[in-house]
Design goal:
Helix content: 40-55%
Oligomer: single chain
Number of strands: 2
Number of helices: 5
Distance between the termini: 23 Å
Strand order of the largest sheet: 1-2
Strand content: under 5%
Length: 150
Amino acid sequence: MKRSLRDPIARRSILERLARLTPDHPRKWGRMEPSQLLPHLASALRTAVGDQQIDAITHRRKGGNVFRYLAIHCLPWPKGRIQAPPGAFSTPSLGWERDREVLVELIERFGTAPPETLGPAHSMLGPMRPHDWDVLQYRHLDHHLRQFGV
């Protein structure tokens, strides 16, 4: 089974890594700066917990269910080659420490939210099941923390 933010051990691991991240961490790949990272991750979690609605599903792929399953649960995520959905970097920063506090709150909230309260769809992957959200959010956080070496 893939790691999930609903697993308290996996969630604690993410939170410990997040605590080690600093605004000066150099990136290992991609173009994102540390100051963009925390609002980006918070935005993704807001969509997952249903606080932020997506305008429309931007990509309808043939074999959408198969693609969604493979992208979330099976395929490795290439470094620096995943195109973020529109609006993924539009959340303004509230300052490093406040951005981190907000992100920690959202991670904890997501990890303990009743599955039926999660958002219905992802902007690129379409309709989501709770377990899809669980694994996707863990992998997204892990991916970006590895991007900055934590």
